[in-house]
Structures are given as structure tokens and as C-alpha cells.
Recover the amino acids of this structure.
């Protein structure tokens, strides 16, 4: 059984069809790339999967349960995380506190009391969460800035922090919306190494929307291509790179290039 499946997923905005009968699936331990030109329907598809938008038709099945129409927070507690959903909510808190909040969010604990009173009190009240959060920050390379305000981080580090926040919810499925945008080459390499570790060691299912085609072609196990809200192709990265319909959708560009 697939970890996530969509069946004839449909979304209308007035007279505009933004997503039209899209079927896709991702398994545990698989990285799926979702690509397409601007306006192809990628973000709308993500919004439908994660509960931000309600579909006009079709189904979203996660771990065997139809979740179409469920609220985003309910879907998150089922084991799905999207990088931007928890990012930038608490810019005045430290990097560490943001990750602690995410751990408490996943467990359903009243984190306002245990996290937001004072950093020192939070650490005393829940040492286990503190240790988990620090271990996660070490994993993603942010332990040295753990006590800095989240808003003070440069853009690349904020991207990495958004991933740490998502991982703190201990997801089975991770939705990454342009995760390497704004990162330098070293940060991209570190980010994608971490993503592959999640796939290989935790069997996390991952869906990536990304305009960096080198990342898609080198890191994804399978690729789905949208254009004008419809699925126009799917297959292995090498197959997609040679697909004439895909190349034409990108206005004649070489989809294998960065």
C-alpha cells in the first residue's frame, strides 16, 4: 500500500481549473519530484494534500485513510509535515525554542506553558524535549546557533531550520516546497544528503516541488510533471529528461540542466 495517493484530484477556483484529475502516489522511503512550469498547479496540489485547500473533487489517501477536507493541524498530527507550515511562526523565539515547539505540537502537550515562559524554565520542565531538539539541530548543522533568535538567521539557515521544525513533528511523509531555493552549493549538498538519510534510515516518504532541475534529476527516485493543472508525464528522472512533451512544456528548455 502506498503511503500517499491522490485519485482524480480536482480543484476549481471559480471558472478556472487549477488541478485536473491528478493521480500520484509515493511510497515509504521514496523521494518523489513534482515539477512543472510556473502556474502548472504544483503548489495547489501541495495545498490540497496538506489540507490548506479543500478539493473540488477526488481523494487524498494517507496511510489508507481518506483525508480530503481534513484540517491542516489534524493532518500534521497524522504524520505529515510541510516545511513552510511551521516556519516563521515564532520569529522572536530562538532556533532551539522553535524546534521544541514543534516537538510539543506533535505530542499534543500544552507547549505554551512548557516552552514559552522562559528558555531556562522550558529546559528544566522538559529535558527530554530539549535533548531531542539539540540532537536534531546537530543533525542539520544548526546546533551552534541554537540560542539565536530565528529571525536573525540568514536565509539559507532559515531554510535548514524549517526542515528541522518539520522533522521535529516526526513525519512519515515530508512535503518540501522549493527546499533549496536561496541555498548555496554547499548548503544544497548538505540538505540533500540529509533528505536521502531520512529516506534510507527512517523510510520517510518525501515529495519535493523544486525548480532546480539538477536536484530533481539527481536526487529523486521518481518524477511527476504537471502543466496547466494536468499530469502530462511521470517516470524515472532519466525518462522525464528525454520526454518531448515535458521539454515542450518548459518552452523548449533542457529540463536536465540547472
Amino acid at each position: 500500500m502506498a503511503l500517499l495517493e491522490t485519485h482524480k484530484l480536482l480543484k476549481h477556483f471559480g471558472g478556472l481549473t487549477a488541478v485536473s484529475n491528478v493521480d500520484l502516489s509515493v511510497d515509504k522511503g521514496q523521494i518523489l519530484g513534482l515539477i512543472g512550469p510556473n502556474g502548472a498547479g504544483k503548489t495547489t496540489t501541495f495545498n490540497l494534500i496538506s489540507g490548506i485547500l479543500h478539493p473540488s473533487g477526488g481523494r487524498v489517501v494517507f496511510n489508507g485513510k481518506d483525508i480530503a477536507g481534513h484540517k491542516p493541524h489534524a493532518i500534521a498530527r497524522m504524520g505529515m509535515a510541510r516545511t513552510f507550515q511551521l516556519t516563521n511562526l515564532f520569529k522572536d523565539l530562538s532556533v532551539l525554542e522553535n524546534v521544541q515547539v514543534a516537538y510539543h505540537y506533535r505530542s499534543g502537550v500544552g507547549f505554551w506553558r512548557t516552552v514559552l515562559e522562559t528558555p531556562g524554565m522550558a529546559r528544566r520542565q522538559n529535558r527530554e524535549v530539549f535533548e531531542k531538539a539539540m540532537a536534531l539541530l546537530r543533525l542539520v548543522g544548526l546546533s551552534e546557533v541554537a540560542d539565536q533568535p530565528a529571525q536573525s538567521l540568514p536565509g539559507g539557515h532559515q531554510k535548514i531550520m524549517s526542515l528541522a521544525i518539520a522533522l521535529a513533528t516526526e513525519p512519515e511523509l515530508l512535503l518540501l516546497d522549493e527546499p533549496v531555493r536561496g541555498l548555496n552549493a554547499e548548503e544544497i549538498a548538505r540538505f540533500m544528503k540529509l533528505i536521502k538519510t531520512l529516506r534510507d534510515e527512517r523510510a520517510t516518504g518525501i515529495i519535493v516541488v523544486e525548480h532546480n532541475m539538477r536536484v530533481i534529476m539527481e536526487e529523486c527516485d521518481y518524477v511527476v510533471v504537471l502543466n496547466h493543472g494536468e499530469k502530462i508525464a511521470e517516470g524515472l528522472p532519466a525518462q522525464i529528461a528525454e520526454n518531448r512533451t515535458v521539454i515542450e512544456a518548459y518552452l523548449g528548455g533542457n529540463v536536465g540542466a540547472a
Notes: Residues 185-202 form the longest helix (18 residues). The chain has a mean pLDDT of 86.
